[in-house]
Specification:
Blueprint (H helix, E strand, L loop, with lengths): L2 E3 L18 E10 L21 E7 L3 E12 L6 E8 L11 E11 L4 E4 L7 E2 L4 E8 L7 E11 L4
Parallel strand pairs: 1-3
Antiparallel strand pairs: 2-10, 3-9, 4-7, 4-8, 4-10, 5-6, 5-9
């Protein structure tokens, strides 16, 4: 099992806007893989497939975001039988008792990435406010990916501020 960081995922980014009409955010993150199945734009020296158990750190979810929904748009599907779970893990590697990190917060491990589709949150987790920065994570399951693919993840949240 490897952790694969998309290079932009570890860079500090000002992704929050300001509007007098509310504090809704739609944070967009894209995962693309090469023809061999390696994650494009990653910091890992990956020459082959994205394997079962690999954790792709797609991007940073800023502290203070109240997470409540997500969508995944699978434009170009991964290999047959590839599934995943979608969740979050804290950037500093230290769990929180108030809001424990959860590899399947948005989607359970049986979520298919092997056919073009638009998917919504499939778990029954309640909205939670992140106390610190966290990576949006995609954990590969089911089968290895050995082909080019393109998937966009959009996390819907409100800015509440970190506790």
């Amino acid at each position: 099992m490897a952790n694969v960081n998309i290079k932009a995922a570890t860079a500090a980014q000002n992704r929050l806007g300001n509007t007098p009409y509310g504090n809704l955010n739609a944070l967009s993150y894209k995962v693309t893989t090469t023809s061999s199945g390696a994650v494009a734009g990653s910091d890992a020296v990956q020459t082959g497939t994205t394997a079962i158990g690999d954790v792709i750190r797609v991007g940073v979810l800023p502290a203070g975001q109240r997470l409540f929904d997500y969508t995944a748009t699978i434009r170009t599907a991964m290999s047959a039988s590839v599934t995943c779970s979608v969740g979050f893990a804290y950037c500093d590697g230290v769990d929180s008792t108030a809001v424990p990190q959860d590899a399947a917060y948005f989607a359970a491990a049986a979520t298919a990435l092997s056919s073009a589709a638009v998917q919504r949150k499939s778990t029954t987790t309640t909205a939670a406010t992140l106390p610190k920065d966290a990576y949006l994570t995609v954990t590969i399951a089911g089968a290895a990916n050995a082909k080019a693919s393109e998937i966009e993840f959009v996390v819907y949240s409100t800015t509440e501020g970190a506790a």
